[in-house]
Amino acid sequence: MESFGVKIFLNFVVVVYLSQLLGMALATSGGFSLDLIHRDSPHSPLFDPSKTRTERLTDAFRRSVSRVGLFRPTAMAGDGIQSSLVPSAGEYLMNLSIGTPPVPVVAIADTASDLTWTQCRPCNSCYKQVVPFFDPQKSSTYTDSSCGTSYCLALGKDGSCNEQKHCTFNYSYADGSFTRGNLAAETLTGSSTVGKPVSFPGFVFGCGHSSGGIFDENSSGIVGLGGGQLSLISQLESTIKGFFSYCLQPASGDSSVSGRINFGTSGMVPGSGTVSSPLVRKGNDTSFYYLTLEGFSVGKKRLRYKRFSEKAEVEEGNIIVDSGTTYTFIPENLYRELEKSVENSIKKIGKRVKDPNGIFSLCYNTTREINAPIITAHLRDANVELQPLNTFTRVQEDMVCFTLMPTLDVGVFGNMAQVNFLVGFDLKKNRVSFKPTDCSQY
Predict the structure, then answer these.
(1) Burial class, 215, CB count within 10 angstroms (exposed 0-12 / middle 13-18 / buried 19+)
(2) DSSP labels, 94-157
(3) What is the mean pLDDT of residues 25-42?
(4) Among this protein's residues, is 426 annotated catalytic?
(5) Of the ranges 35-39, 183-187, 371-375, 435-439, which one carries the lowest mean pLDDT score?
(6) Strand order across the beta sheet in which 382-386 lies
(7) Is the dihedral of CA 17, 19, 22, 24 positive or negative?
(8) 110 is an active site residue
(9) Binning pLDDT at 50, 70 and 90, where does residue 82 land?
(10) Which is catalytic among the residues 114, 216, 285, 322?
(11) Which of 35, 40, 110, 285 is catalytic?
(12) Which pTM does this prediction carry?
């Protein structure tokens, strides 16, 4: 992976409980839904009541540094599938169970990763974790994957064979973090919000026997929700038929209320007010969900997408929709115009000030709610109207800041821009839908 730019990651925690009898649950409901819990909710295993909001924002910034170069074209080039897993990223936790009998696993959910992995015994060199390590020798349904299988081949340059002809994986990252172990098949279990227990027998995952770096002790690995062959989404394709969706609450909302992620027909996003934009496939890269951003509007003023020059054509697939990134990143030239237009449209709010943490560019000294304009993101075939809660955040009691940021890398449509939208992925028609929704009531 290449050197770092700037990325900030999601302050939500997804808590997902998976159990048994998936077939029965889907037969009666046509899909299933799981809870999404905000990272800073008292119900979150990551909740730290001693931290202020400013400290949480700063922590989010620091955690994101490890993911900076993830979406660069150069980082995705080369033979095989580029590892998109980055330690300490995502800010979702999925509480699941693996094995027979089921063993609890707490892992970071990442929509920009494919391989799901957890730390396993014996662990030669591992980081500390709160939950017990998974011991494959105590499970009656654990099976090491053989070399030459399609899943082993999907690892590309990150896969190899050991002396027992078992498939192994070896992921390493620019910050020095790493995970190594065996590719295996196991039963993934938990319970859905429909009240029916569900089961995923034969789920392919990584059993890590050596891991280290900046991973958090609250998590025992990663759950991959990307579009590649090894991801949870792809492995459940015959069950969920390429549909999933989620609804994220604002960080300032009721922390006792959960958001939701939906799979199968439950993940379809129909109805009035829904707009959709086509996914763009880029070569052999199937892990990321690319859309085409054509520009923004601030009020009635339209700002055309531009990256390096005024005359440059809009590049297809120039932005990644990612629930694992907190803020939205756009090309520097476009950002400068957008910031200027936003500043000109905000009147009598307070004095413009510098962010003492050096994260945000446009900030105001005010204790009042900001009267910011609606900013429309013009995606191909879809105009997504962003409310102030999607574009501004209160970093301290007397300061609010604009949360879109400039980048020299590919753009990212982050989770703050997706708050209070039902965001749906239809991987059959290759479209992403947005429907304005009060996610606290969804």
Answers:
(1) buried
(2) EEEEETTTTEEEEEEEETT----EEEBSS-SB----SSPPB-GGG-TT-EEPBTTSHHHHHTGG
(3) 56
(4) no
(5) 35-39
(6) 301-304, 293-298, 375-379, 382-386
(7) negative
(8) yes
(9) very low
(10) 322
(11) 110
(12) 0.81
